[in-house]
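debug: dumping io for the single-chain case to check the tokenizer round-trip. Nothing else runs in this session.
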Amino acid sequence: MSDIASNSPDSAATRELVSQFRDSMQRIRHEVRKVIVGQDEVVEHLLISLLVGGHCLITGMPGTAKTMLVRTLASALGLSFKRIQFTPDLMPTDVTGTDIIDEDAHGHRRWNFVPGPLFAHVVLADEINRTPPKTQAALLEAMQEKSVTVRGTQHLLPPPFLVLATQNPVELEGTYPLPEAQLDRFLFNVVLDYLGADDELAVLQRFTTRVDLPPVEVCTTADDILKFQWLTRQVPVSESVSRYAVNLVRGSRPSDPLATDAVKRYVKFGASVRATMFIALASKARALLDGRFHVTEDDVRALALPILRHRVLTNYHAESDGQSVDDVLRTLLTAKAS
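debug: decoded output
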């Protein structure tokens, strides 16, 4: 990794890395499509989250293959995978790990740390809104710090570290919704919708005639992903595109002069500067995945909705007029595109 990072974006080593990146991403998409039908946009968002070093919140109905998607992607990436089923009785140490007392043959006792399921490259936090805030906070601390602290000792998590958290948008009883400040730590809030009729027919034909899933080949390693993350940050963003991203996020704040009429009427709180940074980083990854080494305004517009939808809080006027966050953001994107 240090050999790559010491080179400039125009060096021979970097050009070789770009070629490796394109080949690896093409193979990963191919392997994922063996198991997952449709959902190409969602797969792209998950890859962007990985390349940026962020985390992703997946909102979808039960039975939309959220777990299978994440497990398949981790297998194609060659990364370790752990799934945590969040429940109301889950404790923080159940996810972070804990210290236990071991006794050797001579009767000497000492504390040993037993890692929890967070110690994996890809962690699926299933139904994160079903566990109490204390356990949620333990997960979110690990997402931010890339480490956990047990009995005052810090334990680093293995890089790269990616959390993909799911939540059910329908069931509200017995849930603990994530506060806005904690939602802000997720790069994306991706909505996993139902498949189209043709894709659903393809699922029926593919998976009702066999008892096992198609084998998924490993396409990368953890070291490869770290190099790809470095490469992503080398993608340049022009001042005009950066200004466009800044103005777009500022337009989501009702008190800002750039806010549209819909934002002023329906939004209580807009997105912070963290959203601007995430849009810029994610746009770099999208450009690289598209085979480009520069960011355009189209990249910003394409990623604005999943990055902003969980950072913008609407008011009672929006609820009374039947306006969702996505509705308001679409009017903002339309206004800024003109």
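debug: round-trip ok. The chain has two domains: 1-89+119-234, 235-338.
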